[in-house]
Design brief:
Structural class: mainly alpha
Largest sheet: none
Order of helices and strands: H
Radius of gyration: 29 Å
Strand content: under 5%
Length: 78
């Protein structure tokens, strides 16, 4: 039983390391394939819907003042 536990404790990190290396290589390969000849700038992005670039933000609503709540009653005290 002890040998089995030690074997799992040794094999599990090795499997996790292998998966991490393979996943890292896949990500690096995807990055190199998708890399453009020139860097992406904000001018390349499509315009956003909603607020125009020069428009001001709407005024925030007035804050509502709230009374602090008392302690919640314990179910056994009802």
């Amino acid at each position: 039983m002890v040998t089995w536990v030690i074997g799992v404790l040794v094999v599990w990190p090795l499997v996790a390391l292998g998966v991490a290396v393979v996943l890292g290589r896949w990500i690096r390969l995807a990055d190199t394939r998708s890399r453009a000849e020139r860097p992406l700038t904000t001018a390349d992005l499509p315009p956003r819907s909603g607020r125009a670039s020069g428009a001001r933000a709407a005024e925030p609503p007035d804050r509502v003042t709230r009374r602090p709540r008392g302690p919640a009653p314990h179910p056994a005290c009802r």
